[in-house]
Amino acid sequence: MSSASPTLATPPVKRSFREQMHQAREDAIVAAVNRLLAEKGFEAMTVDEVAAEVGIAKASLYKHFPSKEDLAAAAMVKVMQRAQSFLDGLQARPGLTPLQRLREVARWTMEVQLAGEMPSLPSENSSLRAALAASKPYVDGLMDVSDRLGGWIVEAQADGSLNTSLPPIAVLYTLYARACDPVLGFLKASGQYGTEQIIEMVLSTCFDGLRQR
Amino acid sequence: MSSASPTLATPPVKRSFREQMHQAREDAIVAAVNRLLAEKGFEAMTVDEVAAEVGIAKASLYKHFPSKEDLAAAAMVKVMQRAQSFLDGLQARPGLTPLQRLREVARWTMEVQLAGEMPSLPSENSSLRAALAASKPYVDGLMDVSDRLGGWIVEAQADGSLNTSLPPIAVLYTLYARACDPVLGFLKASGQYGTEQIIEMVLSTCFDGLRQR
DNA sequence: GTCTATACACAGATAGAC
DNA sequence: GTCTATCTGTGTATAGAC
Predict the structure, then answer these.
(1) Residues of B in contact with A208 (CB under 8 A)
(2) Residue A45: closest CA among chain B residues belongs to which residue?
(3) Predicted model pTM
(4) Per-residue buried b or exposed e for A104-142, using 16+ beta carbons within 10 Å of the residue's own CB
(5) Could you tell me the domains of chain A?
(6) Which of A12, B5, B52, B80 is close enough to A4 for a disulfide, judged by CB 3.0 to 4.6 Å?
(7) Shortest CA distance to B149 belongs to which of B178, B169, B119, B132?
């Protein structure tokens, strides 16, 4: 968004390079936070671990992000952006039915979780909750995603492919919950199934239910 | 299990009374731990909070339980025992089909969770995990519950009421996961539905699936 | 067994040199 | 902006009187 100051003698190229380095460093930080957040959750993750994984001093982290909460919030925003990008890609495929889109979204969240990149959600009274609620990019992203999914949900109910007796918000929350469903980890830990099999099974239980059809 | 020593002059009644007091105190402790475990999880729960809620000094807690992990493990064992008692009650009702039994189990776990009494499961690398794996009562209880549910699952698949393309273990894990499904909390927080409505909706998504039947 | 007081460890955050 | 060194609070656990 910001351009190099024209009054300075330093060439814009150099400033851009430094900004690129800065951005790359922050990306590395956010990626490490994301991974640790998925692995152990916000409370159990320590800033020392983040610093160690990135390979910089802890004090340097605090030059980039003012607190542990902001660190985690940045990772959550990043995940939300990835989700938005995925929805963009889905919307660009006109051949899909609304139900197919919802199914693809669920599949994507499960893939992200099995890749160890889906942060587990903070408990109700966590300090992270306040930070997320105060983060405009996060809240805006969440609302955007919810709106788009909500649109597909009502469309799928209108065309008769989705259970019409469920309120759309219940469907929406059910899809969100699949992103952190521990069933994936349980089945993975059992060692009997590959990631693709696991995802197919959980997708089946989610959309088709446990009862025989 | 233990009886008063016959060589002592103190009447057995008194010893029994003190044991009752002791047991009542421990029950109060476990109940508080259970509630806090459900509310904020193992990492965020502090022993100070437990002591404050029970109304005794922190050091007294450590006379009853040697560590925070043992404290939490005791609460988990208690929950497992409650589950076993519930299964006992279900088995005593011969009129129920296997599918109905499974549905009642899912309903019970959701009721417990909405009552704020279902501890959230520890993350993969938590110190609580090791304590639970080392707790014979817990592991035994978990295996007993799994065996009984597993029996009903294969019965329900045999009588054609449960999806036969799913491995029984996937069904089992799916039921376990419903016990800590965040959807319940989401819907509760939305303020639009009562607990009974919420449970019916989640039961529907679990057994009937999101797709229209 | 219950208490007060305290030891010990560690996590989040900062100071200040470079 | 990065580092080393440090401050500060807090959480688990224990000592020791009663």
Answers:
(1) 163, 209, 211
(2) B43
(3) 0.93
(4) bbbbbbbbbbbeebbbbbbbeebebeebbeebeebeebb
(5) 12-208 (1.10.357.10)
(6) A12
(7) B169
